[in-house]
Amino acid sequence: MEIIHTIEWMKQVSRQARLEGRVSGFVPTMGALHEGHMSLVRAALAECRPVVASIFVNPTQFGPNEDLQKYPRTFNEDCGKLENAGVDYLFAPEAGEIYPPGFRTWVNVEGLSERLEGKSRPGHFRGVTTVVLKLLEIVQPHKAYFGRKDAQQARIIRQMASDLHLDTEIVVCPVVRETDGLAMSSRNAYLQQDERRAATVLYRALDGARQSIARGERDALRLTAAIRETLRAEPLTNIDYVQLVDAKTLEPVTRLRGACLALLAVKIGATRLIDNLLIEERAGEFDTNL
Ligand code: PAF
What we know:
Helices cover 37% and strands 22% of the residues. The protein has helices at residues 7-19, 35-47, 75-85, 95-98, 117-120, 124-139, 151-163, 193-198, 200-214, 220-232; strands spanning 2-4, 25-29, 51-55, 89-91, 143-147, 169-173, 237-246, 259-268, 271-282, 285-289. Pantoate (PAF) is lined by residues 28-30, 58, 61, 128, 131-132, 150, 153.
């Protein structure tokens, strides 16, 4: 695996792959790689060559009181994981390479970015879409892979790719979970032992909703109320939001119809975690995906 630090060299490699007519894949990350990231890498390797991964802890998607400074940085370990998996190139630029002095252009996907995560983390998605567009411009992949754990992010990036006629297909991959159901996240590393145990409540709450839907419940208010009740029963949790929304518009729904997402954000101690349940109507039946 070749490690590339400069935009110029990364662009040269990308141009060459396109010239050779190869289908390239890209997995953007902020490092601290876990099985969730590695599932994206494997999905990319199954369909593309070369596969490029990036590690860039993007400062513009962190708010002033968020965890940019303490975000886990495990570069050497991450390199080992990517190399062993068979990734061809790792793009790992410095912050000054991506945001040189005088930088003043931002990408904002209006209407989808201000709600839910965007409401709790103002400016977050502006940082995400700006860096993702930059990375896609630099790497020029045919396909880019994102996890459905960050369902709102995936939806916003899809919208950006479509609105800006990007030459990259956005592939969204399933959530990867620990054996007790906790969705894998680099931020799980912040959890103390009792918090780690309490964090399974996110999965349990969504799984409860999944079971209610299987029994025929279609009312969004009753489903979100039951999710809240399960979350509240765990003393270490502090709910930020629980919402059932249309998967495309991200607007709240009152009844399940078409594709919906049950989205939640919860603080466990000082650590903020998110998770979601995908609910899809097919021929009048509802399929759920945790
Ligand atoms: O999901 C992430 O890790 C980040 O938001 C991303 C897509 C790499 C952009 O910094």
